[in-house]
Amino acid sequence: MAIKCVIAAYPTLLTTLHKLKDDKSVRGDSRAKIGGLYKQALKGRTYFGLLCSHALFEPCEAVATSLQSATASAQGALECTGVLKEQIATLRHDAVVDELIRNVEICASQTSLKMPDTTTPRVSKTPARLRQTTEPEAVANSGLAM
Prior knowledge:
Structural class: mainly alpha
Largest sheet: none
Number of strands: 0
Shape: extended
Low-confidence stretches: none
Number of helices: 7
Radius of gyration: 23 Å
Order of helices and strands: HHHHHHH
Distance between the termini: 60 Å
Number of domains: 1
Strand content: under 5%
Mean pLDDT: 85
């Protein structure tokens, strides 16, 4: 599975992208794309997404392979899909997510991954059309004026 290979070689991938983004022998437009890939690869959330994708798709791939075999039966297919449902349901547990986060933190300590700041809560702003206001021009601009 390609995702598993990328996860296994992630530090090497980061090193390679870092070298190629500054390599003058690579065409300029390709260097720009490589630079963008490198910037995304440095984010902890990218690695976390890879780990989540692997956890989700690895059992799916095993079931797909089983269903495509020449000896597959309808009963076997039902059993496979039942097991797959159970495996996917286990991914929703906090312990599984905590393990994935620990793996990201381990990779971040070995490489230069940028982890998101979890100390400050994310501030969300209420959209203007939903804010209560007493200013007549704000009401007129929101489309609520009659």
